[in-house]
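MODEL INPUT / OUTPUT PAIR
PAIR INDEX: 1
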Amino acid sequence: MVGLSLDLAPAPARPARFLHSVPIWGVLFSVQIALLDPMAWTNRWHPGLIALVHSLLLGVIGNACLGALMQFLGAAAGSPVPGSPRLWNSLHTTYNLGVLLLVAGFKLGHEHLPLLTGSVLLISALGIAAGLMLAGLARGQGSTWLRFGLSLPLVLWPITALLGGMLVLRLAGIGSWSLPRMTDLHATLGVLGVFGLLLLAVGSVVLPMLLGTAPHSRRAPAWAIGLCTGGLALVLVLRKSDDPDGALAMACAIGLSAALWGLGRLYRRPHPRNAPLTWSWRFALVTLAVTSVLLWCSAVPIILALAIVLGVVLPTLVLSMLMEINSYLAWIAWHRAQPGHHTPSVHALVPDRFKWHWLSAQALSAGALLALAITPRLSFVIVAALLHTLAYVLLWRATRRPWQCLQRGTAQ
């Protein structure tokens, strides 16, 4: 298991800016569910649905991943991220403004000016952020396989943003490339290449550290990352050669393999702990495995499978870890503010009941989203929007709690 190097961790306020933006974007995502025409759920090209997806993936998941990576690279991968606080504050503002403009452009019906401006801001912010993180990994002293596994998605993230920019240009009438094929490439790189590989690399460290799974061999994560990278490349080749069925089957195989690997690790735990996080991951991984099998057998339409993976699996995995990382940030801030004084344990900063409340709301909102995707009705829209709002309010409460403890503790 990789140990934590707290002296290499950044100033807690820097990644916390990204993490604390997540509940705000979550509420905006919930509002968009309420405003979206129910029939938009049957059309993957509907501008409102595209806005909703990017609000979730870039606003919620993107901010969570950027904040978590800033902390993870220094503390767990021995690769502190360079850059001044002012630079990272500017990147945070640029990134979120870019997401806001992009979502607004789609929501207004492919409005070109906000789409183009948002794309430029996003490409710039992600390019600089990824470059700084890759520089930190190149100079780092941590595990070679872990740094390599983290480098792959960081290279793919700006590329995915560039492909998104090309799609925006195509919508503006510039260029002649195929819109459906480019969209599939953009989505595949984003979901499998960026977020999938990030979760695999981070999960190989997080599972032993936070959930008490058995320590893995040094080569096991490297093999897993290599196989998933090869599978991703095969998906892209099959899609490029006009074999969508083969590409879909390979994507399902990657999802099923990753889910079974994670569930197997959770099943064999010599030191089980952190029940809320454990059940969050079990819920997400079982959902991913079942969805992969059903999609492989053509038992569910692609748009429904995407709604499950993007709306249920990814948020549950990422946001459950966000609460743990946020607690570590507050703990580090406490430790640095009062060196030599007694510091409470990380797990004492957020009671388990806060996490259980969030997981319950997350599971209910997932069911409502699934019902809405299967049967688009106004009643399901209202229920899904309310439950998602509740889940993100509870997430905000759980992420706010450690910093309240910090303020009370350092004031004494």
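PAIR INDEX: 2
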Amino acid sequence: GFKVQICSSLKIALEKAFSLAKKNYSILFSPGCSSFDMFKNFEHRGEEFKKIVNRL
């Protein structure tokens, strides 16, 4: 089985994933629905994703 975490924002999801990451493990980031007006479009979401990951 897989562990699943539901988070209220992209930032929280990435910070949680980073805190749970272990050496030699992978984390799958797979948003399964729209961003509910959090972002202008998928490109904006991608840019924000990159910014957050680069800060971790």
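PAIR 2 NOTE: The mean pLDDT is 83.
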